[in-house]
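Reopening this ticket.

The earlier resolution said the output was attached, but the attachment link was broken on my side. Pasting everything inline this time so it's all in one place.
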Amino acid sequence: MAEIKAVASNRKALHDYEVLDRLEAGISLTGTEIKSLRAGGAHIREAHVRPLDGEMWLYGAHIAPYAAASYQNHEPLRPRRLLLHRAQIREWSAAIAERGLTVVPLSLYLKDGTAKVELGLVRGRRAYDKRQAIARRDAEREVQRALRERNR
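Inline output:
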């Protein structure tokens, strides 16, 4: 059983976007970055993913500088290469180019000690879509509450 430790999540993305597809990717990190992640110092709220030269890159993810590092500490907002299969990169790059979709990180976690990011292929929601999603979520919550009350 894989041990998973959540480091950061992007809950705002689930509100602002409609998630069409999800994918798990590895991240190419330096030593001080992985140590900082293990200490829980990361934010992915403003992050996004772009294809560049046949690779996918994570931009805007903030990994805090490692406190115990020397002068060789990492740059907190540097672009980080994502580790994906070539076919996955081609498929998602085509979706970004043709259909005008976006790739955003949904969560950042450690899986058996390895840094992973869950990516979402998303389409932006309009204001009325957001209101409908909130109304649907509230209705489901009310149904669950009523079922719990009935079962008591």
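Reporter confirms the inline version is readable. The beta strands are 4-9, 17-27, 42-43, 48-52, 55-59, 62-63, 80-83, 102-111, 114-124. The chain has one domain: 4-125.
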